[in-house]
Amino acid sequence: MPRRHRMLRRIVMETEPLLMLPGPVPVPERVRLAMARQAINHRSAEFGAVYADCVRCLKPTFGTENDIVIISGSGTAGMEAAVANFARGRKIACLSNGKFGERLFDISKRYGEPTQLASAWGTPLPLEDLAGSLEAGAEVVTLVHNETSAGILNPAAAVGRLCRKHDALFIMDGVTSIGGDVVEADRWGVDVAIVGSQKCLAAPAGLAAVSISERAMERIADERPYYLDLAAYRKNAKKDPMETPYTPAVPLFLALREAGLLIEEEGIESRVERHHRLARAARAAVDAWGLSLFPSTDEHHGYSNTVTAVRLPEGTTDADLRGHVKKLGVIIAGGQDHLKGTIFRVGHMGAVGAPELLATFGALQAALGRLGCRLDGDGVAAAAAHLA
Ligand SMILES: *Cc1c(COP(=O)(O)O)cnc(C)c1O
Prior knowledge:
- The chain is α/β, with parallel strands linked by helices.
- The protein has 15 helices and 15 strands.
- Pyridoxal-5'-phosphate binds at residues 22-23, 74-76, 100, 144, 148, 173, 175-176, 196.
């Protein structure tokens, strides 16, 4: 290859790697450009309209008619706000089968009296124990809908039914399902749901949106955090024009509005269908190679439709595999905590489609081949069969 072309190729790969992570995800140009403008006053009709657009576009992704407030902070700020405002001093049942379920338990320890109802990462949750906990007086339940660390989809509707039966508040981390998979917060009885901007919404990192039911508001703690007082966020969001209590990350709101408009233009049903198709393609590739998906599912639990977790084949190290894939311009994720070196994870959420999925599985197939893995078949062809 002529030197100039080689340089060009290197530059392209070094400046624009394809992020196939379970967040952050590639941000569409329209969304990025929305941030490149002069500062605006956050106490103005103009900002109020931006906030209102964000909320309007987010409601269908949550499946809610409840109020939604937006916090300047990552998904974890939304998780902490939910627990600190609605679970303070209460008995909390924390369902956990992965890193983010554990995080909700850790946050709950700071504010209330949690019991962890845990199963091994990526295995079905102990739903029987939840009924017992609720009978024993748990007032709040936390669940991660799509457990990103293990690629498992947890049964939010079933958990919501149990919460309603026992009149408990239901806090759901929807950080990697909202905007990418079916979420019916109102139908499922979710009182508080949380999403982060850099996942399925395909916006830049730094905002968390939290939906709040009337039932949750009736039970909000008297003693609340100062910066993350959700009663204050809700009160300010009800002003005309809409406001936040303190100066928000205005450029991120501008970007989120644009990301929301893209979601509105695509339509949430089509968007979810696109994510489902990408997930089927990813699983078909893994299957064709003869590799194994990481999670174990049952009639209540499914495979994630936004991130696919795969067991590393024997004799392959995480560093080698992800290193080779990276040389081909694609960034995928490894395992977290004790799963480091055991699994790799491919995010397929946000604004990505067939080209990105095929590039990723092409790079993976090439890397696995280079590392001497004997693959059963052509995963790229198997994926492609689902995409056209
Ligand atoms: C990414 C993620 C979060 C939030 O993480 P932040 O780094 O704070 O944005 C929470 N829950 C799940 C399931 C996630 O995937």
